[in-house]
Amino acid sequence: MEKVAFILKTTAHPTRIAIVQLLAATDSLSVTDISDKLNVEQSLLSHHLSGMKLKGILSSHREGKNIFYALKMREVIDVIQCLAGCTFL
User: What is the pLDDT along the chain (89 residues), one digit of tens a residue?
Assistant: First the structure.
């Protein structure tokens, strides 16, 4: 239950949930790609990405000037899918 609580606390924002869902469908995406797909400003997006990386939810690597993010903690997908299937939401 502690891990579930950690995941819920770390992803408790619509933008963060959207990031997780987007990265669950691909290996990795650049900040620019994520920003374009979610229609979120890069500065705000970078704040969310760095926080989730710091908590171990995401990983990143640099290719030239671009930083690519990937989902590191795959259990996050299960928690979000479980909540999405709740009938009271």
Answer: 888 888 888 999 999 999 999 999 999 999 999 999 999 999 999 999 999 999 999 999 999 999 999 999 989 998 888 888 887 75
> 79 and 57 in contact (C-beta within 8 Å)?
no
- Starting at the edge strand that comes first in sequence, how are the strands of the sheet with 66-71 ordered? 29-30, 66-71, 58-63
- d(Cα 86, Cα 17) in Å, to the nearest integer? 16
Separation between Cα atoms, residue 71 and residue 25, nearest integer Å = 10
* Cβ-based neighbour number of residue 73 at 10 Å: 19
The letter for the amino acid at 9 is K
Is residue 89 helix, strand or coil? coil
